[in-house]
């Protein structure tokens, strides 16, 4: 041993060895049975056949700058709530045109909750008198269906948007983009979960007649509401902005209450609006979704970038879009969430994953920020350490940490933001999504909430598309 070797070893030979095990569990289990401390690492090699794809994409001379540019745009976005208007005005929706969550879909492939929401939209718009009549018309092609994401919009769960529904209007003050989302109905038997009973339609009509106009008057009186600031504060108060929005909803009420009561609307209507929001902890979710959509869209269309700019589900398919591949969807079968069920419901009652609300995870919130919201496990299942682990794992597949969205228990580390297709394929780690569960049968409503992951093959497909787009070397 040379004289300097002892210093380089830094006492390595004087300490007990630390064993790290990966792959199959046999080694770790054998060591544990012998009381040998072992740290297990959840890792798997890239799928067979992806080595060449990874080599091409990682060797793309544009990649480093492209990824840096795309994720910088996402991190610097400044989403602000500026207005509330009917969908027919802001989106130009004509009678018989409905938007829906997730990748493109037709009636024949639509799941139970998607069909239920479309039936409800037909009833709401007066295009059918009964659910049976609505179903026959939809099956005959009477409605035109289009994904929300194709219109700068996101919709929770089924995500169905019809012309008379009122929409949050969110603008990115930094990059100039605009995003839209419908108003949140609350939980239980609601349209977005596929329910369409008389109480659902009555609530939606009240939202269009009273809630939307009062919110519009209040936000116009107030001026732009800084959603980035509210989200950042809510993370400090125990929200993760997907399935827990209690703090964010409370902060919003504080921000807007004076402007709600300052107008000339009937006192009974103002009180009804405040009671509705107070009884709906998820009210802010739709604003968080629109804020995340505006932020993620800022990172779109950067040639050579593997940044995921959308994750969405329609109850049949789970799809992603990637910055460097334009508006192309990469889809696979939607999985069924694993979690907690309401009342007497069980796994057989749940529909496969559905909704555009995974835009929150796309922008570094939701499942990626679960460490900030330990109470979320009471809603989606698991234990508090599981929430911490979920966030910590997401740093392995993301490009950056958000400068304002911070996690107190992780020493105010920024939330993992900017899913990188290459890292997902290389590590085998899939994005963590926490979500509500809709009933499989149309008209059921919500049956539970839990965790789900996208199908791995959609990231491999996106990687292949990125590889095809790498410029050929002369």
UniProtKB/TrEMBL annotation:
Q: Record's InterPro entries?
A: AllG-like, OXTCase_su_AllG_h-dom
Annotated Pfam families: AllG (PF06545)
Q: What is this protein called?
A: DUF1116 domain-containing protein
């Amino acid at each position: 041993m040379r004289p300097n070797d002892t210093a380089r070893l830094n006492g390595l030979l004087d300490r007990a060895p630390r064993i790290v095990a990966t792959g199959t569990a046999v080694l770790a289990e054998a060591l544990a049975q012998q009381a040998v401390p072992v740290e297990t690492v959840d890792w798997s090699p890239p799928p067979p056949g992806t080595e060449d794809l990874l080599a091409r994409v990682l060797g793309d001379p544009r990649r480093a700058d492209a990824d840096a540019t795309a994720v910088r745009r996402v991190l610097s976005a400044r989403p602000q709530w500026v207005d509330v208007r009917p969908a027919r005005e802001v989106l130009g929706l004509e009678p018989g045109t409905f938007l829906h969550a997730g990748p493109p879909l037709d009636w024949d492939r639509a799941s139970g909750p998607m069909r239920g929401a479309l039936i409800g939209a037909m009833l709401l718009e007066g295009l059918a008198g009964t659910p049976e009549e609505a179903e026959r018309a939809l099956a005959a092609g009477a409605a035109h269906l289009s994904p929300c994401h194709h219109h700068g919009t996101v919709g929770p769960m089924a995500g169905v948007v019809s012309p008379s529904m009122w929409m949050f209007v969110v603008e990115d003050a930094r990059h100039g983009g605009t995003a839209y989302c419908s108003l949140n109905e609350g939980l239980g038997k609601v349209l977005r979960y596929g329910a369409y009973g008389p109480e659902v339609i009555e609530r939606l009509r009240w939202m269009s007649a009273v809630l939307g106009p009062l919110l519009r008057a209040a936000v116009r009186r107030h001026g732009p509401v800084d959603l980035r600031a509210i989200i950042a504060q809510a993370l400090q108060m125990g929200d993760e902005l997907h399935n827990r929005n209690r703090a964010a909803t409370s902060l919003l009420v504080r921000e807007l209450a004076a402007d709600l009561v300052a107008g000339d609307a009937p006192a009974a209507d103002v009180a009804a609006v405040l009671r509705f929001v107070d009884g709906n902890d998820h009210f802010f979710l739709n604003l968080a979704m629109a804020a995340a959509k505006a932020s993620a869209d800022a990172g779109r269309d950067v040639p050579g970038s593997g940044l995921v700019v959308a994750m969405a589900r329609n109850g049949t398919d789970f799809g992603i879009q990637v910055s460097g591949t334009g508006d192309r969807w990469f889809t696979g079968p939607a999985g069924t969430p694993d979690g907690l069920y309401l009342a007497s419901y069980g796994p057989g009652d749940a529909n496969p994953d559905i909704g555009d609300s995974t835009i929150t995870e796309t922008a570094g919130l939701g499942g990626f920020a679960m460490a900030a919201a330990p109470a979320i496990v009471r809603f989606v299942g698991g234990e508090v350490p599981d929430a911490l682990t979920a966030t910590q794992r997401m740093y392995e597949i993301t490009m950056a940490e958000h400068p304002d969205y911070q996690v107190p228990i992780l020493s105010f580390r920024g939330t993992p933001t900017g899913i990188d297709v290459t890292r997902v394929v290389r590590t085998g780690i899939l994005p963590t999504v926490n979500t509500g569960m809709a009933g499989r049968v149309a008209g059921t409503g919500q049956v539970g909430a839990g965790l789900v992951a996208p199908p791995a093959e959609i990231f491999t497909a996106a990687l292949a598309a990125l590889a095809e787009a790498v410029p050929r070397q002369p």
